[in-house]
Specification:
With about 260 residues, the protein is mainly α. The chain is about 50% helix and about 10% strand.
Length: about 260
């Protein structure tokens, strides 16, 4: 209600929330929310995972919610010019903003992923190749699937290519098979037919006697299409399984202009 009076809103996806509105009112609302969650549920707001985005670098003293702003100040980010890597914000784990901002966010995640993959290789390659392969398939391969389903393929190309390089290294360590993904899946490699066959076989699903390890740079297109098919219907007014009308997230007039 506090933010609605100022044209703002509050959106929650499970435990991930987004508050939009004037800076002072947002800080006040977050402060109230933190106290209410503690009182009602015994839950503590994780300040280290809370981010505040604003168009200017300084909050005016008179606009601060004094009891809370001092905690949030280290986590406040300024939105810079359109060509600045600061131009954007993260919503439900997805970077939204300028190309540099999105690329920077993905780069940080891939750096962390590559570091973890290298640690796994060094820790397991001499004691448990089976464990290394299981971690590759179930933990490392899906690391960017969420971003791939929410961001256009052009935004995830570099990140998925870097992750593929690390995954290839992990797969070679776990299987001892050299020459993985040395060509595009499904294309002939006249220089090495064995490498072509092996790469294609590795990329096949298990039901087709493959390993299910496909380059993420190849699957990012299908992932994005799948993500859009999941979310777009919810933006429009639609009917549920019982035939009842469910209001869409977007206003009908705006949805009509957007989708026709």
């Amino acid at each position: 209600a506090l933010l609605r009076e100022w044209g703002g809103l509050v959106i929650f996806d499970a435990d991930d929330g987004l508050l939009i509105g004037p800076r002072a009112q947002v800080l006040q609302a977050v402060s109230f929310l933190a106290l209410d969650l503690d009182y009602r549920c015994g839950l503590k707001l994780n300040i280290n995972k809370s981010q505040c985005y604003r168009p200017r670098r300084r909050l005016k003293t008179g606009q601060r919610a004094a009891d809370f702003a001092s905690y949030m100040e280290p986590h406040v980010h300024s939105l810079g010019p359109a060509d600045d890597a600061n131009r954007g914000l993260v919503v439900s784990g997805i970077p939204i903003g300028g190309q540099a901002f999105v690329a920077q966010h993905l780069d940080k995640k891939v750096n962390k992923a590559v570091e973890g993959i290298n640690t796994l290789i060094e820790s397991l390659r001499f004691c448990s190749l089976q464990g290394l392969f299981a971690l590759l398939y179930y933990c490392c391969l899906p690391l960017l699937q969420y971003e791939m389903s929410c961001l256009p393929p052009s935004a995830t190309e570099e990140a998925t290519t870097r992750l593929d390089t690390a995954i290839r290294r992990m797969a070679v360590s776990a299987t001892g098979i050299e020459g993985l993904w040395t060509h595009n899946i499904g294309e002939d490699n006249n220089d090495d037919d064995t490498a072509s066959i092996t790469s294609d076989r590795i990329a096949l699903p298990k039901r087709m006697r493959g390993c299910g390890i496909r380059p993420q740079a190849d699957t990012r297109y299908a992932a994005f299409v799948g993500g859009m098919l999941q979310c777009l219907p919810n933006l429009l007014t639609h009917k549920d399984v019982n035939g009842d009308s469910v209001p869409g997230i977007l206003r009908d007039a705006f949805a009509t202009d957007l989708f026709g």
